[in-house]
Amino acid sequence: MPVDFIGLIATQDGSESTPATTALVDPAYTARIARAHEDSGFDQVLIGYSSAYPDGAQVAAYAAAHTTTLTYLVAHRPGFVAPTLAARTFATLDHFTGGRVTLNIITGGHDGEQRRDGDYLSKDDRYARTDEYLTVLRQAWTSDSPFSFAGRFYRFEDFVSQVRPVNGTIPLYFSGSSPAAYATGVKHADVHMFWGEPLAQIEEQIAAVRAAADAAGRPYPRFSVSFRPILGPTEELAWERAHGILDRIGAVSAPRFFRNRDRDNPANVGSQRLLAAAATGDRHDRALWTATAKASGAAGNSTALVGTPDTVARALLDYYDLGVTTFLIRGYDPLDDAVDYGRELIPSVRAEVARREAERLVGAAG
User: Tell me: the pLDDT tens digits for 193-248?
Assistant: First the structure.
């Protein structure tokens, strides 16, 4: 099966290890990094969500106007707008971008961050609300006649939207590593996303999601894993660069990157799993490095794959062999790394996957 590559764009440069040099909303930089991802062969880019940052739908609309093929994976937290309004918002955006919108549904694992936007529900209640929300969202995109809904969190009558997605619906990407996340995700998601854990742990999570799908009588979703590749022309230079990044994490931009993340005592299971992996050692499998996760408190996608482009490509293929067909890769030097990935990493992975697929088809025909 072909692989999809997702990057990440923002309206300001910088990262956990690199100070920002632009304004928080810099249109020129936003367009530049979007075009860099498109030129580098990425299929999509994620636009993250935070209570303090620019609105993702508007960022996507602006960036899409400066690109032609790139799809925009907009992170969206259920609960802050009605699902009927969200359905119209994203269907409208889908039309103006020519069908280049997908949604990353984030239920929320950081109570403090949720409360900044006025959400005081418990984690379990948030997942229950997400279940209702996505049920309404899907129906709003597909129903050609008015419908009503009476749930625990949402209630409305006689709703029908005249604007529907270009291709009938919008793909949903779902994040979460708890049993509640698995149960909710398999009911609604096209792709289930994980942060970059060791191979054995990703295999364990894939099995758990598939078990939840079996229990619900649902088809299996596709799977995505997220990494921060650190490349070098030699192994030695890649590791030298990696340790330089590690030394800078948090030192130059902690207020910006960590205020809205539960860095010191993460409540979400995904961060806890990354920290548990880091506690067993910094290096895992072929190229996985968890020291960056430990340094940041696993506050988001933070584990690295370190090595030459060939080493990192082979590491990604190890996950592909487990059933992962989407990779979210973003660098600690966001713009330059996106260009490097497009030149040295993405083509290599795609070529090997294509070679394997051709070999499989020949074998099946024989």
Answer: 999 999 999 999 999 999 999 999 999 999 999 999 999 999 999 999 999 999 99
Rounded to an integer, what is the distance from CA 344 to the centroid of its chain?
Answer: 22
- What is the end-to-end Cα distance of the chain in Å, rounded? 19
3-state secondary structure of 166: coil
Q: Scanning the structure block, which residue is given the tokens 């269907």?
A: 91
**In the structure encoding, which two tokens stand for residue 181, read together?**
């996340």
Pair 299, 268: CB distance under 8 Å: no
Q: Which CATH number fits domain 4-365: 1.10.10.10, 3.20.20.450, 2.30.36.70, 3.20.20.30?
A: 3.20.20.30
Indicate whether this model's pTM tops 0.90: yes
Distance CA 136, CA 113 (A): 25
Spatial separation of the C-alpha atoms in residues 354 and 359, rounded to whole Å = 9
> If pLDDT is split at 50, 70 and 90, which confidence band does 298 have?
confident
Q: How far apart are CA 241 and CA 162, in angstroms?
A: 52
Looking at residue 230, its amino acid is: I
Angle ∠(296,192,72) on CA atoms, nearest 5: 80
Find residue 303's DSSP bridge partners.
none
Beta strands 222-231 and 191-195, pairing class: parallel
- Please, is 298 exposed, middle or buried when counting C-beta atoms within 10 Å of its C-beta (0-12, 13-18, 19+)? buried
Contacts of 122 (CB under 8 A, 6+ apart): none
Tokens of 313: 């490509």
* Tens-place pLDDT, residues 100-135: 999 999 997 677 788 888 888 888 899 999 999 999
* Overall average pLDDT of the 337-357 stretch: 97
